[in-house]
Design brief:
Largest sheet: 8 strands, mixed
Distance between the termini: 46 Å
Shape: elongated
Number of helices: 9
Strand order of the largest sheet: 4-10-9-8-5-6-7-11
Number of strands: 11
Structural class: alpha+beta
Low-confidence stretches: 220-224
């Protein structure tokens, strides 16, 4: 069994070296092995094998016993990945605190204010176009809250949502309980759909960064009645996401 190029690249991206990948894969294939055997099977030079084994053990990817000579064994990929994830998160948090402690006071003293990209959109076509653009460019997650007045967007967005679903994007949609059943069923095929009584207003959050907040109804009314705010602002996205999750708490599944 050989490791695919995709898996090898992913292992490299999370911090494993070429020698570490070869050593770990050899342990997966061969079971418990001594350093000498590992050097032969993996192709890692004997002069480097103990350094590589020590690094893998420190990272949580392998273990060893007390025999003589010492034998090494691979830990499960799930266990190893979790150890790496926790280490990355711990290191990030530590570095984040160091950076913020020194740089935030400098930023505050500079007197420069943050200038997020925020736009007011008016007119049903402009708003619909921006929403579809956000949906189309989403890569990881999209959260959508739409009242009954936004029913017309469902048919326009459905093809885009199918594409996102096929790409593995997580889609969660909160709708008014007055939405027609056919629209709800169509959306439920490509996303997690919840319904809520008395849902007013709405919005979209894409990849925890881009936000559209609907301030007026989007229906067949005049262009001037349709107003929305679009923002590229992480802080606003976090606030909007927390409110979205609050609304989901007592929302119901589509029956």
């Amino acid at each position: 069994m050989s490791i695919s190029d995709n898996t090898r690249k992913s292992l490299e991206k999370i911090g494993l070296t070429s020698y570490e990948i070869r050593t770990y894969s050899s342990l997966l294939k061969g079971g418990e092995l001594t350093a000498s055997d590992l050097s032969q099977k993996s192709g890692v030079p004997y002069s480097k094998i103990y350094e590589v084994l020590g690094s893998l053990e420190e990272k949580g990817w392998i273990g060893s016993d007390d025999s003589r000579p010492t034998k090494y064994f691979a830990k499960s990929p799930a266990t190893a990945l979790e150890a790496t994830k926790q280490k990355i998160e711990s290191d990030f948090k530590e570095n984040e605190n160091v950076v913020l402690r020194e740089l935030v006071p400098l930023y505050e003293k500079s007197g420069v204010s943050e200038r997020p990209d925020i736009w007011v959109l008016s007119g049903i076509m402009n708003i619909a176009s921006k929403i579809l653009e956000m949906v189309d460019s989403c890569r990881n997650e999209v959260l959508i809250a739409l009242p009954k007045a936004n029913e017309m967007l469902v048919k326009q967005a459905l093809p885009k949502l199918r594409q996102l679903h096929d790409k593995g994007v997580v889609i969660t949609i909160l709708m008014s309980d007055e939405m027609d059943r056919e629209s709800l069923k169509a959306l439920a095929r490509v996303s997690t759909v919840k319904v809520k009584k008395g849902l007013f207003g709405g919005g979209i959050i894409s990849d925890k960064r881009y936000v559209v907040i609907l301030l007026g109804p989007i229906n067949d009314a005049s262009e001037g009645e349709a107003v929305a705010i679009w923002a590229d602002h992480a802080g606003l996205a976090v606030f909007a996401r927390e409110y979205f999750e609050y609304l989901l708490k007592d929302a119901k599944d589509v029956s």
